[in-house]
Amino acid sequence: MKQRLTSAAVLLVLAAFFVVSGAEWINRAGRDTLFFADVNQYYSYLPAAFLEKDLGFTYAHHYWTNEGQKGREVPKVTMGMALLYSPWFALGYWEASREAAANQSLTGYERPFEKWIHRGSLLYALLAAFLLLQCLYHFFPPLISGLSYLALFFGSNLFYYTLSQGEMAHGYLFLLLSAMILATIRYHQKESTAWLVLLGLSLGWAVLIRPTLLIVGLFPLLYGVYDRGSWARKWGLLARLRWRWGLLFLAFLAPLLPQLFYWQWAAGDWLFYSYGSEEGFFWMDPQVGKVLFSFRKGWIIYTPLAVLMLLGLLGLYRIRPLRWAIIPLLLLSLYVISSWWDWWYGGCFSHRAFVHYYPFWLFGLTAVFSWAGQSWRRWVPLSVFVLLASGLNLQQSRQYLSSIIHWDGMTREAYFFIWGRSQLSQAEYQTLDSLIQRPDYEAARSGNRDQ
Known about the structure:
It is a single chain. By secondary structure, the protein is mainly alpha-helical. It has one domain. It has 22 helices and two strands. A two-stranded antiparallel sheet has the order 1-2. Helix 1 packs antiparallel against helix 5. The model has no long low-confidence stretch (mean pLDDT 95).
């Protein structure tokens, strides 16, 4: 009963916030549409397939493509996000068709398409909250779990990538990984085939969108392992899969198959590195310090709640089923994030690459909340810190929306110049511009990690 009440309360708080003030947080970056930059690329498959009927992208467009061996243009991004957009695209098409004139052909960029896909993003966010709360309840009290989730939402850039640019991949991956975690926990409880299918499907879909997320497969493999006896139980569970290994593989492969067949048709290869030869990883030179502490995009600088998440790794060590399933995974994810050529991940608020790993970081944060909840002497300072961190996150989100925080060129001097300001005069914007240092993307691609 307490779990149901907590889930209902958290979802009600989120839904009420979405309805009352969500629209004022939307970031169109001065454009007339939400479909710009990365989102436009994810979306590209839908208008190409259903409206232009040209997945070779021979028509005039503004998508990022690379030419395959067959001479066809292949989108830089995969179709994973487009598949998740597709129910809302269908509703947008239905509404736009009703409103269009008899001789008007739709482009996919009419307002109903934008409206429905944004609504879909918010509904996915509510579903992710529900699923992840079910995971937390397995280890923590309901009230602590609910408060921790709300702290994560309002105190981190999950807020921005739900309301302001919720159509980016991060919130969608947050949902898929929440589903994978819940499926793992429930399968270990009941060994139900349905949960196994969900595990494979959610992991495969996440890998389709972000291939580097293959590393989160460590979670189901290592969940529940902490000593010799638990290793024996894990091997027994894996042995009992038998024919269901094939089912798990098919579930993992299902979301990948459309992409593989498309690449074979468009590019002439079953596997096609659509990012091209200029973008990749520098495994021997990870920029961990800059990813965490730089004023350009430092996770801790722009999301101080990250301090509690990092401290939560100590708390996770005491939760035996999660110990080796989450801690090595998060350390490995930090290494992967820091090794990407563009360690600041382009234009974004805070460090966006952490957002889709938040389902795992949330366990650490909740462990801190659980520890603090044992004494008011701990709870009071924790509450003060969380409230201050959340207030700063909301203020800086607003600053980013107003272009006070620059998308990729912040410096220490620029950060302290705009500290606490909600608006700038034209003269102050000019001063801010003189303090900005834009990175050299070409130099970064070639391995200059000092950018």
